Every structure is written in C-alpha cells, then in structure tokens.
Amino acid sequence: MSDKELAKKQSQIITAIVLLVALLFLINFFTFFNSTSSKSATYSAGVAYIEKEGEDVVAIRGVRFDDTTTNTKITDVTNVQTTQQLRNVAESVQEINVAQEDLRERLIQEVESGAKTTLSTIDSSFDDVAKKEEISSRVNERLNEAMVRIDTAFDGSIPNTESVTGVRDVVIDTLTDFEVIVSEETGRSVSFQEERDLLRDTVIKKTSQLDEQRMRFIERGGLSLYLDSDNDSVSDYDEHYIYGTDPFNAYSAGREETDGAYILSGRDPIKGDVITYEDVRVADSGVLIEYAFSLSSVSVGAKRVDSGGSESVAAITFSGRALPNSFVTIYIYSTPVVVTVKSDQSGKWIFTLTEELVDGDHELYVATVNNSGKVIAKSTSIPFVKEAGAVSLKEDLSTFSYNASGEYTIFSRESIILLSLALIAIFIIAIIIIGYYKEHGHTKEPRSPFEDEWHA
Description:
The chain is an alpha+beta fold. It has 4 domains: 3-32 and 414-455; 82-219, no CATH class; 223-274, no CATH class; 278-409, Immunoglobulin-like. It has helices at residues 3-36, 80-125, 129-153, 161-186, 193-219, 236-243, 259-264, 413-440, 449-455, and strands at 42-45, 50-53, 56-60, 63-66, 276-277, 287-288, 294-305, 311-321, 327-333, 337-342, 348-353, 360-369, 375-378, 382-386, 391-393, 401-402, 408-409. Strands 6, 9, 10, 12, 13, 14 and 15 form a 7-stranded mixed sheet that branches.
C-alpha cells in the first residue's frame, strides 16, 4: 500500500472518530441547554375553572401560568430530615406492596389451579350437560367466594398475621371443599393435600417477612399514614411531616373549611393563601424518589363527536400510586396543569383531566408538595402522547434515562462519558496501527506492533 493510500485511510478514520465524538458531546450539550433554558414559571392554584385575558387563557383548572415570571427560590428550604423520612417510608411501602402481591398471586394461583382440576374431573365424569353445569356452578361459586376474601385481605392496608393466616385458611378450606364436591358427585377422588402443605409453609415464610417489614414501616413513622386524628381528610403523617399543621386541629387556617379542603383547592392550610407552586421541571426542585410515585395508566375518559362524526378526546384519566392516604400534586405539560389529588389507603390515586390538550407529546410528573408550594419529592418525567381520538404512554420509555437536570435523554451523562472514553481509546489505537502500517506497509507479512514489542 502506498504512502498516499495510507494517509488517505488515516484521514478517513480520524475524521469518522472525531465526528462521532463531536456528535455525542452535541447530544449532551443540547440536552443540558434545553433543561436549563426551559421556561421557569410559577403556578398559583385557585378556584376558577378557566380564566381568560382577551383570547389568551391565563389559568386552567384554577392554575395560573405566567411564563414572564422568574421562578424565584422559595425561602423555606425543605428539611433534609423530612425528605429522608419520606424516602424511608416510601421504601417500606414498596417492600410491603411487593411481598403482598407475591403472596396474593400465590393464593390465587392455588385456588384457581384447584378449581381447574375439579372442573376437569367433573367434565370427564358426566355426559349430562345439565348435571355438569350444575356442579360447575357450585365450584365457581366457591371459587368466587375465595377470590373475594383474598381481595379483601389485601385491600391496601398493611396486613397483619391474623388476616394473612385467615385468608390462607380460606384457600385451604376451598381446596378441601373441591375434594368433597368431586367425591360426592362423581365417586372419584382428587387430593390437594400436597398443595395445602406447601401453602402452609409458604404463608409462614411470607408472614414472617411481612412482620419484619411492617415493624420497619412502623418504626419509620409510617403508621401515621393511616391515622387522621382530627378527621380533616389529612393523615397525621402529612400534617406532621408535609404541611406542618396540627393533627388534632381540623381548621388550622381558622376558617370554616378543613385542612383537607384547603389542600385540595390549592390553598395553604395554615395561612389560607393560594399556593404558588414551584416548577417541578427545575433540576433542584425536590428530590427524585422514583419508587414513591408511579403512573399506572393513562386512558381516554370520555370522547366527544363533532357534527361531522369525527371523534376527539374530551377527558383523559390518569391513575397511579403514591404513599397511602396522601396528597400528591400532578403536573401536566405542555399545557401547564397543576392539580392536587388524594390517594386511597392502598396508595392508588386517579385524576381525570377535562381540559383540552393539543395533539402531540406531553409529560406528567407526580410530586409531594408542601403548603408553600415547595416540591419535597417527585417522580421522573413520564411522557405520554395524545392524538385525535386516543392517548397512550410512550412505548419507548425503556430507551430513555433520567438525568440530574430532570430531562429524559437518549444517553445518560454517565453513558456519554464512557462512550467518549471508549471512542478516544479506539482513536489512539487506530493512530498506533495506522502509524505502524505506514512504516511497514511495503512488507508482505507485517507483524502487529504488539508482536514487535513482544519479540523485542
């Protein structure tokens, strides 16, 4: 290979590598630029539904939006202890939810498997269709009763040993009833003894695990999530750790409305003022605690049909999970909507947006916000798409990663650093190899530079 050809190949390789490195840094730069140059805005929740100034909407669902306002730093900085407290309790709730769901699925699996075996035995024992239907009805009735008891046992509250043992006994008794039905109706025998024994062992282990998790949950102050000493719809936990209100005084603002009514309408339960909400998109607004919040589903809540027969979305329903019996604030962009909702005792929350969103990409955040509008903790940005007659979560969530600026990027900062280092290493190796072949390019069987080093 001639020196001219080698120089040409060297130039092509160097140019390609430099372009790749530059591209990666440009992606990172624009991601950072977009996150820091996003509109800083303040939001004030009031009671109006829609407010207009001329043709411009300045408030939607009582949430004022003024993108000419600089989002000033709220002076009462979130207490580090409060944030850590929320993190610890959310972690305990997550542990308990996972353990509960595992046990619930095991119980359901056993009772459904028993019912399937029973129904199969009955089906093979009779030719009389009416007789089959009669016995099958008894089996399904017993199955449904067991399923209701299982759902009741895991209704979202923290289960104790007695409730778990009780629902275990319901499943065991149901399996025994299936044996009796088969024996009485067919004269044949089926046995679920092995399943019963395994179920007893499983429940013992799971109950021990739940007991440990429950004690940790209580030690971290989580029990107050289920207490409302003054019946104002605000848990003692939220009163103490989030809003700073008196858990034994339902009227902290000294007016006729309860603390819960103030919070839901976007007003400070202590001062009575309209809350000015911090922009959740700002990087230093609150702490990211992903397992504390989730968006489970987004769906069309209602549709409207125009005179031409075309359908469009009239309402969008969002649902997810947060801490049990807690208030969470939902942020929806690009049309700025900020609204506070309350989760039930299992942590499930639901919100139906009736304001119109333009077609295209949007994002949602779920956050815990205190009475001054300061974000204490938040979820990542959750993208969703709204089209003419449909709405859905973006399917490519797994290809995005969350970075410190609060934005989703194709690559995380760490990935870009690693990729850049790898490309630089490849660049250096390429230079070494090209330099070597430039020096030994006229030999028929050149050895690699590493072989030369070895033989030296």
